[in-house]
Write a structure and sequence with these properties.
The complex is a heterodimer of chains A (104) and B (247).
Chain A (H helix, E strand, L loop, with lengths): L1 H21 L2 H4 L2 H24 E3 L5 E3 L3 H14 L4 H17 L1
Antiparallel strand pairs in A: 1-2
Helix pairs in contact in A: 4-5
Chain B lengths: L9 H31 L4 H11 L2 H12 L4 H26 L3 H7 L5 H5 L7 H33 L7 H13 L6 H17 L7 H5 L1 H10 L22
Helix pairs in contact in B: 1-2, 1-3, 1-7, 1-8, 2-7, 3-4, 3-8, 9-11
The chains are: A mainly alpha (104), B mainly alpha (247).
């Protein structure tokens, strides 16, 4: 199943890139299409942050919300981003802060 | 169009290539974190590497492994990754006239359409400068992204328990860093806040992976309702790099 998702994502992502270079610009230059396409990554990335930080798998297979060390990791990431730290610093800091809190 | 077709002096060419290489090196570090997070999320080393080789677009790759790592169905992860990949279609539309690639060259160049190569070419004044910026950055990022994915995947494989190392928290940090440059825009801020609310409300009631996908509806609704106005963060330029580390 993971292989299918990996290959499906790979082929699809390439075709999306090729479509951009191949389709006549006016087809997708309609303002409403542009706006939606522009907002999709914002919505998805914001949701991915929220789910990654607050969602936890329960023993019954379902998911619930929880506040734990990951929130401290996210706060550290925010501080790093405000200080214009490079990507790798943001990611490592988020990990290290959460790991340290779990040790404590 | 005579301006667009102007030549490029060797000094300028070298400086554009140097900038592209610098962006590539910065992205390499980002590939390390992708490789490590991918294997701690349940992919094997080969799946992580195939994804970097063939999908070659950071945000989509992080989304796929993030959803799988959080217990979502691989298919939800794939669809989330594809939705994030639509961004590259917009970049391609912007680049196609500027780069002017045809035939086999276009089919090859398409693989290199990512945040970084777009940022380093879209603001150039001539076609030659845009092509040099696009190819130098695209190829540098491709090589380093794939090498570092492999290295990160091997390292992640050796590390063991992902939670003890805070890898679950690292994924949240990675998504936030990807989102960050887009939050300068007011409409994007509203969209992000709504998406967070929708996703969190849905988490306890629908299967893992679905809450994130559902927020595409937020983008759709806001896009239909909003008045037209240019979003300054829509296509990245050099100022968004390399600290944006987009992918």
């Amino acid at each position: 199943m993971i292989w299918a998702a990996v290959l499906g994502c790979a082929v699809g992502c390439y075709l999306l890139k090729l479509a951009g270079l191949s389709v006549p610009p006016q087809v997708l230059e309609r303002p409403v299409v542009r706006r939606i396409a522009d907002l999709i990554p914002v919505a998805l990335l914001a949701a991915l942050v929220a789910v990654q930080v607050f969602a936890t798998s329960g023993h019954n297979g379902g998911q619930h919300l929880a506040v734990d060390a990951r929130l401290a990791g996210l706060a550290a990431a925010v501080v790093a981003l405000l200080l214009r730290a490079p990507f790798i610093v943001v990611v490592v800091l988020a990990a290290v802060v959460a790991a340290l809190i779990r040790l404590a | 169009m005579s301006d667009l077709d102007a030549g490029l002096d060797p000094g300028r060419r070298r400086s554009i290539i140097r900038d592209g290489l610098a962006v590539g090196v910065a992205t390499g570090a980002y590939g390390l974190s992708f490789g490590a997070i991918a294997v701690t999320s349940g992919l094997d080393v080969w799946q992580a590497c195939v994804l970097s080789l063939l999908a070659f677009t950071g945000a989509s790759q992080f989304a796929l492994v993030g959803v799988i790592g959080a217990g979502g169905a691989p298919l939800s992860g794939m669809v989330t990754g594809l939705l994030l990949g639509t961004r590259n279609t917009l970049y391609g539309l912007r680049l196609s006239t500027l780069l002017g690639f045809r035939g086999v060259r276009r089919v090859t160049a398409a693989h290199l359409v990512i945040d970084e190569s777009t940022a380093m070419s879209v603001t150039r004044e001539t076609r030659e400068a845009a092509r040099v910026g696009f190819l130098a950055t695209g190829i540098a990022v491709f090589v380093l992204w794939n090498l570092s994915t492999f290295g990160g995947a091997l390292a992640g494989h050796a590390l063991g328990d992902p939670k003890a190392w805070g890898f679950d928290s690292a994924v949240g940090g990675a998504f936030l860093a990807l989102l960050w440059p887009r939050l300068k825009d007011r409409r994007n801020q509203i969209c992000a806040a709504l998406a967070v609310a929708v996703a969190l409300v849905l988490v306890p009631v629908v299967p893992a992976g679905v809450p994130v996908l559902a927020t595409a509806g937020v983008a759709l609704g806001l896009g239909l309702l909003a008045r037209d106005r240019l979003d300054p963060t829509e296509v990245p330029d050099q100022h968004d790099l390399p600290e944006g580390g987009l992918g």
